[in-house]
């Protein structure tokens, strides 16, 4: 594979925001590996993405809650393409309930995926990103600065993620690695078992986040938008 290629690893890339980012990057000529806890889902999404540009996408079964699984995903990218330029930490889950009703299992899963999972993704990829002077992009949420009733677990995970991401940015920029936190508001995805419909036209669309990631990658190396808040421009009254 030629040295001029660029590659990306997107966690939770089989649908929603992750898939929208994968579409944007492939259109930019970047080879993309998407992960899912289901190999079937990963393969089906990769097959769909390869209709944009044949051979530009692969699917990997991987669980962000497991460091070895993340290390294996990075190794797959390196074995396939020889380098890793971009990591988009997108995998996430949401459990929403008053604290008295939130189960310990729901709390643990939210923290493990939304926060610890990003830490594992970073630990697995940081050496490869040093080699390419790469970019680590976290998909956080406006819930990382705006708390709400029923958001005990989700707010905790996203507040923590924003802190992790911003501190990580300061840790690795001397190595030539950029880190950006993207904090979307309402996005029209399947998140929380929601089924997107025409009623979601006012929301941010997955391809909009894809556009932001594409634009970030194209920024001059001297400039780093470290934290980006994204809202629907015309929410319902």
From TrEMBL:
Residues 6-191 form the Ketoreductase domain. Gene3D superfamilies: NAD(P)-binding Rossmann-like Domain. It comes from the Bacteria. It holds the Pfam family adh_short. SUPFAM superfamilies: NAD(P)-binding Rossmann-fold domains (SSF51735). One of its GO terms (biological process) is monocarboxylic acid metabolic process. Belongs to the short-chain dehydrogenases/reductases (SDR) family. NCBIfam families: PRK07326.1. This is SDR family oxidoreductase. It comes from Dyadobacter psychrotolerans.
């Amino acid at each position: 594979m030629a040295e001029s290629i660029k590659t990306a690893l997107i966690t939770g890339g089989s649908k929603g925001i992750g898939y929208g980012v994968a579409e944007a990057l492939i259109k930019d000529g970047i080879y993309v590996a998407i992960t899912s806890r289901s190999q079937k889902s990963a393969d089906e999404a990769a097959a769909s993405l390869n209709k944009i540009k044949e051979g530009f996408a692969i699917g990997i079964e991987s669980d962000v809650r497991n460091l070895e699984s993340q290390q294996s995903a990075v190794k797959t990218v390196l074995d396939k393409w020889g380098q890793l330029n971009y990591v988009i930490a997108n995998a996430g889950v949401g459990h929403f309930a008053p604290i008295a009703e939130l189960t310990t299992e729901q709390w643990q899963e939210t923290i493990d995926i939304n926060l610890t999972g990003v830490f594992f993704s970073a630990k697995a990829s940081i050496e490869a990103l040093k080699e390419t002077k790469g970019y680590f992009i976290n998909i956080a949420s406006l819930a990382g600065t705006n708390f709400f009733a029923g958001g005990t677990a989700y707010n905790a995970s996203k507040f923590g993620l924003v802190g992790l991401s911003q501190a990580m940015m300061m840790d690795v920029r001397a190595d030539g690695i950029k880190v950006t936190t993207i904090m979307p508001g309402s996005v029209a995805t399947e998140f929380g078992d929601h089924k997107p419909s025409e009623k979601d036209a006012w929301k941010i669309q997955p391809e909009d986040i894809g556009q932001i990631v594409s634009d970030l990658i194209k920024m001059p190396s001297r400039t780093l938008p470290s934290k980006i808040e994204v809202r629907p421009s015309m929410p319902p009254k």
